[in-house]
Fold this protein.
Amino acid sequence: MLRERDILATLRMLREENLDVRAVTLGINLDDCADRNIHTVARALRAKIGRVAASLVDVCDDLTATYGIAIVNKRIAVSPISRLLEGHGGEAAILLGEALDEAAAEVRVDLIGGFTALVHKGITPGERLLIESLPRVLATTRRVCASVNIGTTRAGIQVDAVNLVSAMIVRIAEASASSQGFGAAKLVVFANAPEDNPFMAGAFLGCGEAESVINVGVSGPGVVKRAIERRLADAPESTLDDLAETVKHTAYRVTRAGELIAREAANRLGIPFGIVDLSLAPTPRVGDSVGEIYQAMGIDKLGAPGTTAAVALLNDAVKKGGAFASSSVGGLSGAFIPVMEDHALSDAVSKGWLTLEKLEAMTAVCSVGLDMILLPGDTSAETIAGLILDEAAIGVTNNKTTAVRVIPVPGKSTGERVDFGGLFGSGTIVNVNCPDGAERFIRRGGRIPAPLRSLGN
């Protein structure tokens, strides 16, 4: 149980450090909307989202007023839409994508996730239909986010699916050329995708989840950075294990506050509480950066030798603090490294300190993967497939979630700057070292078998 003293102490810390709740995400199962008539499916989908999520924004606004903690994003994650597309064809996926966008607008949420296909062991007709519709759906809708899971530790990596989705990423960027390829920023390609992730663009309601559920993402990179700075001001000779303890205790307090908000939101909506995800998700704002945490630890140039170790230390300490604070920690709960959304990481890329290869090494120990990375507009589908396969290999082999969210920018080349504005931030287009040379391997298709550790039973 949460004691009042703990809650008040945590709330004082949050107010002093300007911490916010990054996202309250309402999961909704739409499987009962299935029908042979796709127009009936679209109407049922909109009606159910409207009914279940009608009070979500008002409840979140009231919680902000009650507790003084800003809830930045109100979001919805639905069960994989590909399941509703089985037996349909033609424009069915486009119609459901538009229906999701309209439903999200009607209930006033920021984003809606779940335009999703789970293809880690094969591709059904409905899943193929959804993936092939991504260029049009992501280029023409405002709120719809998509994800594709192409591998798991149990199943291995479905290379045919990787090749298909990589070709779609190129087409998404082309279809959204007027917004510098922004459509691709709304698609995440996963290995070992979590079913209870409240963060976009990868949120969806998994097959093992309840009919509806409230999941909350609480993010506090600025709080963690300032806690480290205070520790070093008081004890300049602090060792790395001392800093890890500081991060762990800070994560504990933040998780307690996140669970309070999550349970209150669930109670007021009459919907079960799921998990609190304590992921250090940055924003482009100075003082709200994961990169600044590494700098506070002593990594003066992000990307220098030692950066990967700093990421591992932070990620582990965050997870330990969250796990001690709550039995309902889930999602990703660690440290993100979304380059465009973190001004310190973005700056390191622009200076040449942080390369794509170093970012890939960091993904082996962070909580997600290659995230919000700008690529030259002429990047081939095979190069993107290679990046996805490399990330999936890290995730599948190490039994962790990895993901790729890359944006080929039409008409732009390495070193040029792109600004998406708002929470999506700005960044420099990275150089892909040796972008070709693996095409014969990638085009073989098929499946990379599951590693031996998949036989852990």
User: Anything to note?
Assistant: The CA atoms of residues 185 and 369 lie 14 Å apart. The domain at 23-191 is CATH 3.20.70.20 (Anaerobic Ribonucleotide-triphosphate Reductase Large Chain). The mean pLDDT is 89. The chain has 14 helices and 13 strands.
